[in-house]
Design goal:
Number of strands: 3
Largest sheet: 3 strands, antiparallel
Order of helices and strands: EEEHHH
Number of helices: 3
Helix content: 25-40%
């Protein structure tokens, strides 16, 4: 088994790869602390007002978005994935991704 090797590093996201049993594996790592800090600051500034048609409710790090894309079997923004995405955004486990209070 070979060791992980850096493939790319861009905007705080590092992608590594290795060869294992004749196949290529890859792993993406992201430092999300700064994003979570910005999310918390934005949530502290938000008005709580839900009037209007569109609202910025979350800011999701790239690695989590990629994980959800795999989990949902496609783009989380597709209409058929909307119930799963809303469930994730309303789940306390992902509360640090939210920039607006309330349920979506």
């Amino acid at each position: 088994m070979s060791e992980w090797r850096l493939l790319s590093k861009d905007n705080g996201v590092s992608t590594y790869f290795r060869e294992k049993n004749g196949k290529i594996e890859w792993n993406t790592v992201e430092d999300v602390e700064s994003q979570l800090k910005l999310n918390k600051e934005a949530k502290n500034r938000e008005s709580g007002n839900w009037k209007g048609d569109m609202h910025h409710v979350a800011s999701i790090p790239q690695t989590i978005w990629l994980q959800w894309t795999k989990e949902f079997g496609g783009n989380p923004m597709l209409p058929e994935n909307q119930p799963k995405l809303m469930a994730k955004l309303n789940n306390r486990e992902f509360s640090q991704l939210r920039v607006k209070s309330g349920r979506v």
